[in-house]
Design brief:
Blueprint: E1 3-8, H1 12-24, E2 29-35, H2 38-45, E3 52-55, H3 64-73, E4 82-86, H4 91-99, E5 103-106, H5 111-121
Parallel strand pairs: 1-2, 1-3, 3-4, 4-5
Helix pairs in contact: 2-3
Length: 130
């Protein structure tokens, strides 16, 4: 399965690292969209088919939590698999993320942790991933 991916983080370096890690792990990435905050992420979702979003929480402008809530409120994106990748340490906030049916991955993470979170979010790894 080739993935249409949306990577949302205010750090361009972090976005590139996530994309590179997934490519090296063997994920077939078809269309990759990047956004620097939640508002830009919502714009990127308009009219595009996205299979997975990786979303930071703490960003200037619209943060990831507000974006995640808007994603879940939209009938078209309600079931979009989301992995929140954040330095967030508050167990209460992490539970809110999980209540929104998103996986949570704490920064810093290992490549193996990222691959596992993505595989879990998309329902496992198929033959396109080595």
């Amino acid at each position: 399965m080739a993935l249409n991916l949306l990577v949302v983080d205010d750090s361009a370096t972090m976005r590139k690292m996530i994309i590179r890690t997934l490519r090296v792990a063997g994920f077939c990435l078809r269309d990759i969209q990047e956004a620097g905050d939640g508002a830009e992420a919502l714009q990127k979702l308009e009219g595009r088919e996205v299979d997975l979003a990786l979303l930071d929480l703490n960003m200037p402008g619209m943060g990831g939590m507000a974006a995640l809530e808007r994603i879940r409120d939209n009938p078209r994106t309600r079931d979009l698999p989301v992995v929140v990748v954040s330095t967030e340490g508050s167990e209460t906030r992490i539970q809110v993320v999980k209540d929104q049916r998103a996986r949570f991955l704490r920064k810093p993470f290992t490549p193996e942790d990222l691959v596992a979170a993505v595989a879990d979010a998309i329902g496992g790894v198929d033959d396109d991933v080595e």
